[in-house]
Amino acid sequence: xxxxxxxxxxxxxxxxxxxxxxxxxxxxxxxxxxxxxxxxxxxxxxxxxxxxxxxxxxxxxxxxxxxxxxxxxxxxxxxxxxxxxxxxxxxxxxxxxxxxxxxxxxxxxxxxxxxxxxxxxxxxxxxxxxxxxxxxxxxxxxxxxxxxxxxxxxxxxxxxxxxxxxxxxxxxxxxxxxxxxxxxxxxxxxxxxxxxxxxxxxxxxxxxxxxxxxxxxxxxxxxxxxxxxxxxxxxxxxxxxxxxxxxxxxxxxxxxxxxxxxxxxxxxxxxxxxxxxxxxxxxxxxxxxxxxxxxxxxxxxxxxxxxxxxxxxxxxxxxxxxxxxxxxxxxxxxxxxxxxxxxxxxxxxxxxxxxxxxxxxxxxxxxxxxxxxxxxxxxxxxxxxxxxxxxxxxxxxxxxxxxxxxxxxxxxxxxxxxxxxxxxxxxxxxxxxxxxxxxxx
Length: 441
Ligand code: GUN
Ligand code: ZN
Fold this sequence. Notes:
By secondary structure, this protein is α/β, with parallel strands linked by helices. Helices cover 38% and strands 23% of the residues. It folds into 2 domains: 6-72 and 378-440, Urease, subunit C, domain 1, CATH 2.30.40.10; 74-332, Alpha-Beta Barrel (TIM Barrel).
């Protein structure tokens, strides 16, 4: 193989526009036999194999993935890496679950060694599932952010992450103060934002765990550093919404709390948003704020059914990304997350097509993150983060695929029945980062 050049061949699915707003056929690009050439971390060429065969640089082996589908690497819009160790904790809704499991687990992350070990497990699991970018909550401890970004950087991944800020309604060991939160966030931004592929995300956990003073300083530090992200939670659970109304009686509602403290706008991402009102959705759209749809988590904690069709309605299409929200979410697999997104949509009376679903898992989430010019689709100039999905990853999937008549059916079976076993290979920054056969050998 010549220096830093790689080429792969197989069937390819990608998107050039949003099928929630335009006809799917105008948005989706499918090539049944294509070649993708990558160099220096970018895609340099993509097209039908017959046309591209002669463009492959001499000495570059073309790796041919038969019975596979190549897509852009999956993107996870909202996930908590420190909760890797509490996935599947039984029996509670949001606030009890936070107190009983989450706030206990997160305290171990004052130990950087522990944070590094969990970061490694988390990032390997992302790669094993074909997820190449995630928007990540760390913990209140800056060293938990350093450990995460250091491991992400070693793998060449583009990840977005930040230190949680909390100064009330949480155990003492997990709290900072408005000034400390501001200072530590500023120092981490200076250290990590746009260092290689890393991006910083200002991370107030959610309105109930920050005082008005901390909310004020959080808005300020985000506004002072243009290009950085901001993430939090909103309207996940009805009890939580009522609590926010009590804590912030002067505000018109949950979203207005964040609005008041200058925490809405492009690159602000709010997890859940299940119970947002029409006027709140309108405000998300007007301000360019994104919502992370977390179907497995919302079902697991009994939070409710996010209505993706309504959120993206053509008159005011809110940016919506797809997210696992581990450890309330139950799977690292974006395929499994789409499976649950389909069922949630069914409960809302909307049949989410596979074409729309794969958009959400790739370019749709890139768009929610204002990164659609870099990741989430396959085209020359885009960063070379790809997943190769095995269409026959289990005996029963192989059997079922034998009855699929077209691409739409194939994609739908893949997302309904597929999981981590479907990841044949993951490419990050133009290089092979995970290969199933090698992992099994
Ligand atoms: N709201 C505030 N913190 C959290 C969290 O860690 N997980 C979920 N699902 N919701 C939250
Ligand atoms: Zn969350």
